[in-house]
């Protein structure tokens, strides 16, 4: 009814219908917005607002109070005062410099050590004072290393699994996928705790290796970064398998037949057809594994021992032990930027690629 | 039955162009009692086929009759449940597709979605490690042939259905295999492009001597292109023959009705002289004379098959001579088809008889129109008998 818009002053019996039309009009004119409303609310309330809060806190100073940080603005004498503190980011910057010194020091040691290997003359001992250890960046780098290795391990294990499931008879694929996500039915904590039992010196893994004769003495795995890698790879493997399965299962088997028909042996066909077409799954799975692995706290804490300092543990310590909320907030903001920027760049290029 | 006609045919044409007539010729592709079962469903049912070098062999038949399955067994994607597939005299059972001298164009095209048109076509040559210049020349030639040079750098999802089909064709052709399997190669092309590509295919075949085996749903295409046609039904070969054999001498009602249009009269044999058979049919309310040297039993049920273009239509009763079959009827429908006119004439028995009147000999027929009383007539040698 197009005329309902300009005859708003309608007669009484008609007003009910008018009202309804009005509602319908609002809904239909804004249907685009209503459609994206749920994800929008989700992003606003569960990401954007917490992020802004953290951002705010990161510019405050730590004090002994409740809450344990200074206000970044106050209203005094009719003036709005902003008390932005850059101390935390300064500390981060300092940490970067420390880390750099540490690297140079280690590199110098390495060069000296290698030099010692090649010269018969006694190495000239240069006394350099060891720099103070960096706290945040070294933890970040350790997280990066652990998450990268774990993601690669997940990929190497997950790809064949996903491939095998996608190749299995249709009727059995669902069962296999159920089996992959079955561990989620038990608590994450419980599973990591169980891994402690498996990895300890007298644990299942060592017993098995000794029984099979690969080793004589138990190898020390628990409380090392290897245990953390095993833990992460184990816990996140399903996140790798599921997106990989989704892309591999969509792959038209006729494409492999075509490759074979044109002279491609199976492995070549895999490299030329299956692998490139499963790249979206590889990337999605890697992100689903890498990003949570980066921030992982429980696994390093339970399997890693005090020597394995990851960004998650450092954040926890800063937040709960030092009660330095502003520093913790600053670290997490920096951490987030570090992750988001590369992903944003990747997205930009992948969209351009798809439209090309 | 038609065999006698075919024998006559064969004796007349003992030439090297028709290796299937030569009992000493070796088939290049041979299906020997080949069956394929999917579960308890039989898709291909003990098929025997001999296909010779340089043939353009057409497979026709209804949807789901096993044409693609047959090609897939030849390409090596499926193993026969029973029987042997032989290429050039050797059993290829267990030989993987990448080692068979066969290329296939897929009904679904199966183009690699992440490669450009050019890369798709080049794929087989890249695997062969062909020299770069030669490769480039071949690719350009193939692109040219399917008129896709302009789109060489597009990806498959940026092409229309017919363009994709042409890329698939070029990709299958590029290696110049000994046997080329084409699963409905031209179905998505418009008439002009289809005819042009048909000529291209024939030229390639002539130049390179490739053995083509192709599936088509287009009768005209099968007739125009093929050296021989195999008509399939429910996984079985019903008849194999040259286009004219299949058209003029179908061995069954199925073939007669599947290939081209026809009029079928059911009847019983009442007289069997050496050269002529007389059949009594309820749908003509009389006897039909057929030139046929076959042996029939009196009382046997048979079908007389008359092609619509073999029937003459006239307003005046045609002069009676020996062997001429004449019926009376009224025109119930009429369709103009450009090069011919289709009449549906209702005979006295109520049977609808289809008649094609060619435009060039439309002299008397010109003025025949709806509801006209007409005479339809055909010669005794213009129709044939099928027993099943
Ligand atoms: N993998 C399979 N599993 C089970 N049944 C199959 C399979 N492939 C084909 N069939 C069946 O075998 C029969 C023959 O299939 P085919 O693809 O050979 O038919 P076609 O003659 O090529 O038909 P169309 O003209 O529609 O392409 C069909 O009934 C089909 O359902
Ligand atoms: Mg088919």
Your description of this structure?
The complex is a heterodimer of chains A (356) and B (388). Chain A is mainly α and 356 residues long. Chain A starts with 14 loop residues before the first helix and ends with a helix. Chain A is globular. Chain A has 14 helices and 2 strands; from the N terminus they run H-H-E-E-H-H-H-H-H-H-H-H-H-H-H-H. Chain A has a two-stranded antiparallel sheet with strand order 1-2. Chain B has 388 residues and is an alpha+beta fold. In chain B, strand 9 and strand 10 (236-241) form a beta hairpin. In chain B, 39% of the residues are buried. The chains are: A mainly alpha (356), B alpha+beta (388). Chain A binds chain B through residues 252, 254-255, 257-265, 268, 272-273, 276-277, and chain B through 75-77, 96-98, 102-104, 106, 108, 110-114, 123-124, 127-128, 171, 175. Bound molecules: adenosine-5'-triphosphate and magnesium ion. The site of magnesium ion has 4 residues of chain B, from helix 2.
Q: TL;DR of this structure?
A:
The complex is a heterodimer of chains A (356) and B (388). Chain A has helices at 15-29, 31-58, 87-118, 136-167, 170-181, 188-199, 204-211, 225-250, 253-261, 266-277, 279-295, 298-304, 311-321, 325-355, and strands at residues 73-76, 79-82.
